[in-house]
Amino acid sequence: MKLKIKKGDTVEVISGREIDKGKRGEVIRVIPKANRVVIQGVNMRKKHQRQVQTQGRTISPGIIEFEGSVDVSNVMLVCPKCDEPTRVAIQREDGASRRVCKHCEALID
Ligand SMILES: [Zn+2]
User: Fold this and answer.
1) How many angstroms is it from 49 CA to the middle of ligand 1?
2) Are 77 and 102 contacting, i.e. CB atoms less than 8 angstroms apart?
């Protein structure tokens, strides 16, 4: 199944980790094979970075924060027009598929 969410979309987290619920953010990566998306500022993870030396550069140790992926079923697209998290209808026109907001019927792309 094709994902209805694309990179650059704004989505709202509707379920999953309590801390992330209700958060909105921009989709920065889509992983279609796993049905997952990475959203700016959502599902923040911490990673300990050791001091590394590569080609004369030193990467200082510390804690790196990065976004973990979220299952696409835990998020909903936020319609740019009505600003509501919404389901998306796919409209086919001249062989192209377009996404339509089920709330206000605005064309999303
Ligand atoms: Zn809408």
Assistant:
1) 42
2) no
| 19 phi/psi in degrees, rounded to 5 | -65, -25
Supply the pTM of this predicted model.
Answer: 0.84
- CA 108 to ligand 1 centroid distance, Å: 8
Instruction: Check whether residue 85 and residue 47 sit in a common domain.
Output: no
Q: How many domains does the chain have?
A: 2
Query: What pLDDT, in 10s, does the model give residues 44-76?
Result: 999 998 888 888 888 889 999 999 999 999 999
Q: What is the CATH number of the domain that holds 65?
A: 2.30.30.30
Q: Residue 83: which domain range?
A: 79-109
Ion ligand 1, residue ranges at CB < 5 A: 79, 81-82, 101, 103-104, 106
